[in-house]
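Lab manual, section 2.4: Encoding a predicted structure.

Procedure: take the sequence of the chain (383 residues), apply the prediction step described in section 2.3, and record the output as C-alpha cells. A sample record is shown.
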Amino acid sequence: MGERSWLNGAMHAGFFLLLAASAARVAARHELTDRLTVAALTVAAILAALYAAGLALWRTLGTARPIWLGLVLGVYVALVLLAPSFAWCAVPLYFLCLRLLPAKATVAAAAVLTAAVIAGQLRIADVFEPSLVLAPIGIAAMITAVFWVLQHEIRERQGLIDDLVAAQDTLAASQLRAGALEERERLAREIHDTLAQGLSSIALLLQAADRSWGSDRSRALAAQAAAVADENLAEARRFVADLSPARLEGRTLAEALRELCADTERRAGLPTRLAVEGAPADTGDAAAAALLRVAQGALANTVEHAGATGAVLTLSYLGDAVTLDVHDDGRGFDLARVAPGRGFGLPGLRERLARVGGDLTVESRPGEGTTVAATVPLTTEES
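Recorded output:
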C-alpha cells in the first residue's frame, strides 16, 4: 500500500467496519422485505466488493486508481441517498480522496460526498435542523485540514531526511578525498625524507668516485653508493607498506641515531656524534620514527647546504617529553628569508611531529650555524 501503510490499512479496515455496522443498523431498523432496504443492502454489497477488488488489484491498477475511486464514490453516493445510515462511511472515503487525488479534485470529491450525506439526512428528517448541514461540512473540513497538515509535515520531514542523506554522502566523499590526500602527503614526506635524500647522497658519492676513478677510493665510494641504494630500496618498500623506518627495526631510537651519525660521517665525511641525556624511555614507534626522520632531514640539509665541519645530535629524555637537537657549525642562514612552505623539508618535518603531538623549532643566523630542535611528549599515544 505504499508509504504510511499502517494508516492506510487502518482507513481500509475502518471503511469495512463502518460499512458492516451501517448495514447491520439498516437491517435491524427496517423490514428485510422492504424494497428500499433490499436495494440499500445490495448496493452496500456491491460497494464492498468493488472496494475489496481495488485493494486486491492495488499494484495492478497503478495510474487507474483514480478511476476506481470514482466508481467507488459513485456507488457510495447512490448508497447514502438510499440509506443515510451509511453516512459514516464517508470518513474513510475522505482520506482515500486526499491520498489519491490532486488538491482541486479532492475538494470537488469532498463536496460531492458532503452533499450526498446532507441530502440523505434531509430526506429522512422530519424537521430541518442546521446540524444536518453543518455537521457533515465541519467533519469534512476538519478531516481535510488535518490530512493536509500531516502531508505538509511529512513532506518537510522527508526533505530533511533527503538533505541528511545528501550531507552524509557529501561527508563520506570528503572523508574519502581527505584520506587520499593524507596518504599522498604521507608518501610525499617519506619520498623526501628517504628517497630524495638517498638519491642526493648517491649522486655525491658517485661524483666523488668519478673524480678518483680507477683507484681504491673510487671503488669504496661506488660500494657506498650501492649500499645507500639498497637502503633506499628497503625504505621505499617499508613506507609504501606504512611501516617504521628500517633503521628502527630491532633497535632503540638512540641506537638508530648513533648508526645514522656513523653513516653520515662515513659517507659524507662530516664528523657527527650523538649525545644522550637522561634516563631512556619508550617513545612509541610513531614518535621514534618522527624523531629519526627529523635527524635524517636535518643532517641531509647540513651535508648539502651548510658547509659545516661537524654536527652534534643531542637526545634528551626529560621525564614527560623527549627532545632531539641537531646542531651544526655551518654557515647558517637568515630565517626571515626562507620561503614558507617550500618543498617538504621543514614544513614536512613539522607536520610529521604534529601527528604525534610534537613540535619543531629552528634557530640559525648567518655565520653561526643551525640548530633544529624537535620535542615530543612521552604521554602521547600513536596517532
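Check your result against the sample. The first helix runs from residue 5 to 29.
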